[in-house]
Amino acid sequence: MKKRTLVSVLTCTMLAAAVTATAYADNSDYLKVIPNYDNPVGTFAKGPNGEDAVSADDVNLTDDQYAAIKDKHLKLAMLWAGAGEWYNGMTDGAKEECEKMGIDIVTTADAEFDPAQQATQIETAMGLDPDIILTLPVDPVSGTTAYQPAVDAGVKIAFADNSVNDYVGGDQYVAVCTGDQYGMGRTCADLIADAIGGKGKIGIIYYDTDYTVTNNRDNQFVRSIVENYPDIEIADMKGFAKETATGEVASAMLTQNPDLDAIYVSWDVAAEPVVAEIRSGGYPTKVVTIDLGGNNDLEMAQGGIVYGKSADMPYQIGGTMVKLAALSILGEEAPTYVVSDCIKMTKDNIEESWLAAMNTEPSDDVLKALGKK
């Protein structure tokens, strides 16, 4: 995710590599391994306070509402957890809406997944008197205190992906806007089945920390494999808490299971060390993961180890966050949990997927590998 990573830097302990390995006789035994496996199951994941999801396609402003917001001469701050393609997509989507509404973007910050740094950035941003804050919290625990000055000042907060503890949509914040978490898990299950012809042995490298967004995706991937693909065996399942540790996790998994046909990894940047381990060991293993990203997308474009990806729509998410905050400022009813679409990307539709998700083309290197440059 930047990385668009969903790393939550909660404690130093959580940043140590956590490797969980269990051998089970039955795929269904893996259903209760990943944190938050007992979250409600359905078409869409529930919001942080049990809210039903509303599609981002249904969040719109009228021409009169755009004009009314423009007359207010608002100021907005963007305080992201990290940096990278995914965050750039959200920023670009938000900028487009801000231009339409005449909103001045007073600061954009990257906390580098440091809760203390994010708290300082919130404090600094408050000195610029923003009316709106768009943000992805690094830590849902310490974030409760870190965002309180903005709440007390009446700033309209729109969260990406996740909220913070003890906050309620429509009260301390306007809304959470995120991707279709269950949809991405289902899509990755379909992709890994496509990659191995619907039959074979797979490994799962999942995020072993209590972080709802990522947990929902990982858990739905496992459920979809168990429910829909009886000829696919989950041969091993290992967790990680630090994305740079996934190479070690993959090395252990592949040493124990050198005949794996494919591995699912929680997100794109975390998958890069896995790809490197597969390549260095010469294993006949494909990778499926989540989020767009230059290195792995180039690997895919070249017909290499990465077979496919699912991703949400960061450009749509960023723009929708601005719309939600604007509706709240106008006193209009706004949904408190909003979900964007997800995409299914393979080598055959990389360019179209980038345009849909990011409103931009992939890198020149990717386009050249696709024969389009």
Which helices and strands, and how do they pair?
Blueprint: E1 54-55, H1 63-70, E2 75-80, H2 85-101, E3 104-110, H3 115-126, E4 132-135, H4 143-146, H5 148-152, E5 156-160, E6 175-178, H6 181-195, E7 200-207, H7 212-228, E8 232-240, H8 246-256, E9 262-265, H9 268-281, E10 286-290, H10 294-301, E11 306-311, H11 314-329, E12 337-339, E13 343-346, H12 350-358, H13 364-369
Parallel strand pairs: 1-12, 2-3, 2-4, 4-5, 5-6, 6-12, 7-8, 7-9, 9-10, 10-11
Antiparallel strand pairs: 11-13
Helix pairs in contact: 2-11, 6-7, 8-9
Describe this structure in words.
With 373 residues, the protein is an alpha/beta fold. It has two domains: 27-38 and 181-311 and 343-369, 3-Layer(aba) Sandwich (Rossmann fold); 54-180 and 315-339, 3-Layer(aba) Sandwich (Rossmann fold), CATH 3.40.50.2300. Helix content is 38%, strand content 18%. The protein has 13 helices and 13 strands. It has helices at residues 63-70, 85-101, 115-126, 143-146, 148-152, 181-195, 212-228, 246-256, 268-281, 294-301, 314-329, 350-358, 364-369; strands at 54-55, 75-80, 104-110, 132-135, 156-160, 175-178, 200-207, 232-240, 262-265, 286-290, 306-311, 337-339, 343-346. The chain has a seven-stranded parallel sheet, sandwiched between helices. It has a six-stranded mixed sheet with strand order 8-7-9-10-11-13, with helices on both faces. Strand 7, helix 7 and strand 8 form a beta-alpha-beta unit. The longest helix is centred in the first third of the chain and has 17 residues, at 85-101. It is globular and about 60 Å long.
